[in-house]
């Protein structure tokens, strides 16, 4: 709901209060955790500073005993005292950073879990079919559900899309329109059934070559912080300037680009 807040708000002013109330409720738990962590951080920082100054006072007291009662040289005594003082400061800062170290460890473990997670779709593989000859698409008794969900998005779906034909998929939110696009790009594999291109199961195509031959613009496209030309080149790094202009024109974007910027090498539109 919060992701599509623009759509929700467009249905009326009452929805603004509803969205804000839902958002406030979602923030309650993170707020409690933030207050708790702040108290812990404050406690450990105060403790470290307290230990630091008590230790300094104790060391000065011991140093005075060695100088007046034991007859030690003041210079040698205070050199040793300085070393202990620096060590105490380092220890204090280390203790105060303990909560941050714990957070960093938890965050790093999540990142490494994602990196080390095995994927059934190997984008680095060089095997499989490389060329889509015609582009006819067929779904046979396709079932699909996202890994994080228990309910199927597609249930026994059958559909044929002839090559060179233009089609429109229409339906309510969550009916599977974007899911079909994700399956076509092999972001996911079907749970059951067959998704075929030119009569060949899509899983037999080389993933990298398959995606190179498909052009897609998502519902809310994002541009990288680069020039328009570099964003277009992201799909084919070896494309010439002439080819870049051709694909921009095919996407009905060339006129818009030329009316807002002087050339494709400019970053801001």
Your description of this structure?
This protein has 269 residues and is of the alpha+beta class. It has 3 domains: 5-116, no CATH class; 137-212, P-loop containing nucleotide triphosphate hydrolases (Rossmann fold, 3-Layer(aba) Sandwich); 222-269, no CATH class. The protein is built from 9 helices and 4 strands, in the order ααααββαββαααα. The chain has a 4-stranded antiparallel beta sheet, with no helix packed on it. A hairpin with a 2-residue loop joins strand 3 (192-197) and strand 4. It is elongated, with a radius of gyration of 31 Å. The model has no long low-confidence stretch (mean pLDDT 83).
Number of domains: 3
Largest sheet: 4 strands, antiparallel
Q: What does the average pLDDT come to?
A: 83
Strand order of the largest sheet: 2-1-3-4
The percentage of residues in β strands lies in: 5-15%
- Helix percent reads 40-55%
Termini separation comes to 30 Å
**Could you state the order of secondary-structure elements as H and E?**
HHHHEEHEEHHHH
Write down the overall geometry: elongated
Number of helices: 9
**Structural class by sheet pairing and helices:** alpha+beta
Number of strands: 4
């Amino acid at each position: 709901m919060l992701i599509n807040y623009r759509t929700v708000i467009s249905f009326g002013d009452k929805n603004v209060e509803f969205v804000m109330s839902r958002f406030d409720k979602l923030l309650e738990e993170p707020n409690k955790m933030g207050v708790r962590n702040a108290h812990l951080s404050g406690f450990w920082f105060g403790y470290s500073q307290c230990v630091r100054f008590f230790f300094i006072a104790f060391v000065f007291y011991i140093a005075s005993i060695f100088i007046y009662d034991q007859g030690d040289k003041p210079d040698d005594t205070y050199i040793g005292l300085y070393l202990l003082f620096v060590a105490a400061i380092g220890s204090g800062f280390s203790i105060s950073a303990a909560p941050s170290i714990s957070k960093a460890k938890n965050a790093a473990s999540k990142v490494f879990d994602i990196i080390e997670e095995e994927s059934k779709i190997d984008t680095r593989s060089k095997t499989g079919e490389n060329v889509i000859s015609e582009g006819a698409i067929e779904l046979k008794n396709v079932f699909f559900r996202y890994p994080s969900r228990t309910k199927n998005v597609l249930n026994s779906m059958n559909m044929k899309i002839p090559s060179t034909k233009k089609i429109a998929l229409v339906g309510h939110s969550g009916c599977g329109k974007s899911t079909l696009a994700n399956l076509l790009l092999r972001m996911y594999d079907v749970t059951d059934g067959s998704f075929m291109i030119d009569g060949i199961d899509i899983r037999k195509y080389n993933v990298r070559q398959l995606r190179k031959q498909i052009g897609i613009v998502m519902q809310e496209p994002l541009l990288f912080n680069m020039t328009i030309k570099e964003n277009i080149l992201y799909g084919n790094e070896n494309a010439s300037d002439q080819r870049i202009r051709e694909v921009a024109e095919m996407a009905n974007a060339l006129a818009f680009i030329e009316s807002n910027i002087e050339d494709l090498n400019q970053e801001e539109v």
